[in-house]
Amino acid sequence: LANIRAMDEIAAKQLEAQSKLNKDATDAERQKVDELTESLVRQQMTKQVMSDVGQMQGQLETELGDPFEVELQKINDQEAERLAVIEQYRQHDKEYELKY
After folding, report:
1. Is the pTM of this model over 0.85?
2. Radius of gyration, CA atoms only, the chain
3. How far apart are the C-alpha atoms of 13 and 19, rounded to whole Å?
């Protein structure tokens, strides 16, 4: 009878140890899965940020244009303004000549 009780105690302790081992293993697996998930989320966020940066860069290039073309357009605008002023003065001179 004592022998049976001792075997029952040993079996109960083995069951408890196995249960604890399974729980520890489950916790460790859960932690690994959490770490992997977090890593994948970070990778996805990085990809998204890189995509957003590329998109913004493309928009800026489209809006701002090629630096050479932008500078050329400024020069053309200045020249057009200069020619418009010269034309105004010519018109003014013609009107003055006609009056006198």
Report:
1. no
2. 41
3. 10
